[in-house]
Amino acid sequence: MVFLPPFSNAIIKDFIDSDLQTQIAGFDLTIQDIMKLSDGGIIDFDNSNRKIPDHEVIEPIENKWKLKPGGYLVKYNEIVVVPLDAVGIVLPRSSLMRSGGTLCSAVWDPGYKGRGIGLLITFAEITFHKSARIAQIMFIKTQKETEEGYSGKYQNEI
Fold first, then answer.
1. 73: domain CATH number?
2. How many domains does the chain have?
3. Where are the beta strands (DSSP E) in 59-100?
4. Contacts of 66 (CB under 8 A, 6+ apart)
5. Domain limits for position 128
6. Domain presence at residue 30
7. Rounded CA gap, 117 and 90, in Å?
8. What is the pLDDT along the chain (158 residues), one digit of tens a residue?
């Protein structure tokens, strides 16, 4: 597998500072919104019974969120366009882990376009500033390019 450098505006859009966010192995993703889950979800085999929980945006106070331990959804500022010959992998930045938090993410499929969402888990009280860099996305080249790419429910989420 070959890592693809995510330095092109064709792959990452709506970034804040390309020089600061570009890393050796990937590109930093920043916080646009933090949301709390309002109810439970349903996961099944063929998505015929799937129910994604409702969520509510938590408004920042003076451009900051002070979060108690728990699980939250975080929406990124950046719009990502995953190339048809790659998958995107999102991992937490080490400063998030050293502060008592982590981030869970799914594979970003070839052809996905949008502002992704991650599951932010805090084990201690943490204060996040608006547009804080909390994750890093990297792209891994697939063995062959897909022709159609991702076409699921979350395509073009903004």
1. 2.70.40.10
2. 1
3. 64-67, 70-76, 79-81, 86-92
4. 125, 126, 127
5. 3-141
6. yes
7. 10
8. 555 554 566 789 999 999 999 998 899 999 999 999 988 899 999 999 999 889 999 999 999 999 999 999 999 999 999 999 999 999 999 999 999 999 999 999 999 999 999 999 999 999 999 999 999 999 999 988 888 888 887 888 77
